[in-house]
Amino acid sequence: MIKATLPADEKARLETLQLLHILDTQPEERFDRITRMAKRMFDVPIAVVSLVDAHRQWFKSCVGLSVTETDRDISFCGHAILGNEVMVVENTLEDMRFFDNPLVLHEPHIRFYAGCPLRAPNGSKLGTLCIIDNKPRQFDIDDVSALSDLAATVEREMSSLQMATMDELTNISNRRGFMMLAGYSLHFVARHKIPLSLIFFDLDKFKAINDNYGHAEGDAALVAFANIMKTTCRESDIFARLGGDEFVVLLTNTPMFFAEDFIKRFQASLDQLNSTAQRSYTLAFSHGIVLFDAEKHTRVEQLIEDGDALMFKEKNQSEST
């Protein structure tokens, strides 16, 4: 067995996949409909929409398999995302990459595989639409074209999902995406009694940036702020642009003093940006930190409201001094 190498854009690819907020979500008819069509069109026992995560391939939709994921190291799709075209293996027993693969030697006894890479709008290949058979078969140019057409439909569905939960300007979660993920986190930390903190950010004097330098410069300031958020946050943190010049970060397993340390690191990164950027203004922010209280904060909106109030209090104090 030959393990697939990592794509050249692996870091950006994984970031794009995480921003979709699709991993480990419930089945959806829009994807299940496509795998059913693929199974019927090609008369195969298995059809899958597979997403290749850091250490696994996870199945957003699957017909014909009882599992929802497998190790990435043994995945066929890990190989498929390295190319731009449909990857076809007509007989796995005759392919040096796969002849002794556990998925070939054992269930589901793969003998034929065809997988079309699924591209995000930025070009990253996130996974495949693939079909699998337990006997060898031929796959001609018309079959390749048909599978590619179905994969394009999956890509459109993924793109619409991305647009619904991502902020188009900054490429981080929008309010809708944040509310969805933060809701899951609140239930989890409340059940397991894990500390959680929320930080509400508001850019200072953002209106003056727009008024004095134009909206294009204002947009650039928002993107720069979001980029610092990306580099400062951990993989487990949830962060978003709520709208306008308001941002929020949810820090799981983080008591108040760790949240305050996060602010120090964030401010240091912002200070460095301000010192190196050739601008006539500096980026600054006001913030409010809220420690999650399971009895008080039964909804994400309550956490946000408390963070907003604390931020507003800090902003008024700074402007009055």
- C-alpha Rg (nearest Å): 23 Å
Query: What's the architecture of the largest domain in CATH terms?
Result: 2-Layer Sandwich
How much of the polypeptide forms β-strand, as a percent range?
15-25%
H/E element order: HHEEEHEHEEHHEHHEEHEH
Total domains, how many? 2
Query: What's the helix count?
Result: 10
Could you walk me through the main structural features you see in this protein, from its secondary elements to its overall organization?
The chain is of the alpha+beta class. It folds into two domains: 10-163, Beta-Lactamase, CATH 3.30.450; 175-320, Reverse transcriptase/Diguanylate cyclase domain (Alpha-Beta Plaits, 2-Layer Sandwich). The chain is 45% helix and 21% strand. The strands form two sheets. It has a six-stranded antiparallel sheet. Strand 2 and strand 3 form a beta hairpin. Helix 8 crosses helix 9 (256-276). The longest helix is centred in the middle third of the chain and has 25 residues, at 141-165.
